[in-house]
Every structure is written in C-alpha cells, then in structure tokens.
Design a protein that fits this description.
The chain is of the alpha+beta class and 118 residues long. The protein contains four helices and five strands.
Length: 118
C-alpha cells in the first residue's frame, strides 16, 4: 500500500467538524487520561484515552480543521523509496540522490533502499 492510497484532504464539512471537536477536546489536553462514553446504533461503550493520545488526536483535529491531510506513522516504520518520496512530495530520483549524499539515513534490504521514519 502506498501513501497516495491513504492521503485524504478533509472536506469542508470534515474540517468544520474537526474545528468544533478540537475546541471541545482542548479543555482536556492536560489530563493524564480521558474517560469517554461512545454511543452508536443503540450501543454504548466506555473508553479510556491516554493523555498522549488526547494530545495526538487534538493535533490531528487542529490540522484537519485547517484543511490539511494527516499521515500517522509509527517511529519504527520503514518505507520504500517510493513511499518516502510520496510522503515528502519529491520525486523518487531526487530522494535517491539525497540518500546517496548521506542526507537521509537508510539501509538496504537486498537491492532495495529502506528509509527509517524519522
């Protein structure tokens, strides 16, 4: 799966919903955890959102409210050169040049370069 398959620019409605939700959630940004009750289709569930997740969700909502696409990636992720070029919005040949110059850390797997998420 390439990153271009998952990039989603928020619609105007999604941006507005993100703005409203981020304002409400910002009151809880300094909590160690947040207890939530989620209700949908006559079902309800109690959830606990850890403090770090509250702040991460808040940051994502704030970016969405500005109309920005969001990409979430674990710090230990490894990407192909194509995925990295798409993420950085540069051409793959330009990225390979940066790798060869030592400007971005990477390793080779067989004959392919793999870039660590930074």
């Amino acid at each position: 799966m390439t990153l271009s398959n998952v990039v989603h620019l928020p619609t105007a409605q999604e941006a507005e919903e993100a703005k409203i939700t981020s304002r409400a959630l910002s009151k809880y940004a300094h909590n160690e955890r947040l207890h939530l009750k989620i209700a949908s289709n006559n079902e309800a569930e109690d959830l606990i959102l850890p403090g770090y997740a509250i702040n991460l969700l808040l940051a994502m909502l704030m970016e969405m409210s500005k109309g920005n696409a969001i990409t979430v990636m674990p710090t230990h992720a490894e990407l192909s050169t194509q995925e990295t070029a798409e993420l950085l919005n540069v051409s793959r040949p330009h990225l390979v040049n940066l790798l060869e110059q030592g400007k971005i850390p990477y390793r080779k797997v067989a004959k392919y370069s793999v870039i660590y998420a930074l």
